[in-house]
Design a protein that fits this description.
One of its GO terms (biological process) is amino acid metabolic process. By secondary structure, the protein is of the alpha/beta class. The protein contains 13 helices and 13 strands. α2 packs across α10 and α10 packs across α11.
Amino acid sequence: MPNTKPSLLKDLNHNYDGLQPNPIRIFDAEASKIDGVLKLSLGEPDFNVPEHIKQAAINAITTNQSHYGPSNGWPVVRQAAADFLKDRYNLDYNPDTEIALTVGATEGLHSFLDTILNPGDKVLMPSPTFSLYDQLIRINGAEPVYINTESSGFVLTPEQLQHAIDENGAAVKAILLNFPSNPTGVTYNAAQVKAIADVVRKTDLIVISDEIYSELTYDAPHASFAGELPEQTLLINGVSKSHAMTGWRIGIAAGPADLMKRVSLAHAFNVTSASNPELYAAAEALSTEAGRQDTLKMKAEYIKRRDFVVEAMTKLGFKIANPSGAFYVFAKIPAGYIQDDNEFCYDLVRKNKLALIAGSGFGPGGEHYIRLSYAASMDDLKEAMKRLTAYINENKPA
């Protein structure tokens, strides 16, 4: 096997200096080495892709849809995405100039950030937030700025946002939102979205709104940020969470045409285009009544699971922010137990073979919290609560 010539390593791209693998993946890999471990660590739906969506991909293969298509995706798929956003969230996008189909939400986010950031720019992020964002920002030579939202129930307030804008000055280029949220499961209602938009509209900030969990909202309809401030918003959505298609890697990137012209260039240079069978499968998921019913069935199951887990963990003394979307519970470790969330998670997995994720990996405000994914069968969740109950009872403070 070849060894790198040492002198080649002296002056590589410094934007990658200090970047680390995703802490969620690191812990999950360690937990996987434990025999009999029960993992509620990854945000991975336990449902299989519905059969009619699989068949759409198979049909694309058997009809030889194997050639290069437009970099933004075939027109029929972009139209399906536009119709989906209109039907669910009353958003108006021209499928020819304002939508690109990306290789998952992550590539869409990467293309957004590639497009708008210059070295020295700052991006505001309500925290805790998904642990990938800060790395994508740093890769572009920019600086992530965390806004700790623990004191406001993990919902960014207008006052917090205005303070961050004032404090960081002209270097602020964008704000990156994620709701429903990974890791907290908290989302924003229409009034909260409007309140944030009222602050942003007085600025030249670009809003990147990651709404990949929008179809999984439980207590009220999802209110898209793009519906309130479309002229300043770049929107991410997709089929990964709504249709259990995480491995199929199809995202939706949408925004004003002038911005999307540049985003489409970044997307094309990064990946050329998404895969044809997956694109046609996404069209089936987004445009058919069967696809709509798939999501509603999954959503009903997630609500049952959420309610079960929240009740069980609350009884054990965990304090939980209201998880009104996505499929996560973000719980504060009870007093008297190990308060270092990383140590808590490692102790739990070693003693009781239950893998949860430490909250501090999601940024300021996540310390002393743990994240549980309830995208698992009810049988697994019942067993998980047995193991967590045993751990809590066996480690009661003196």
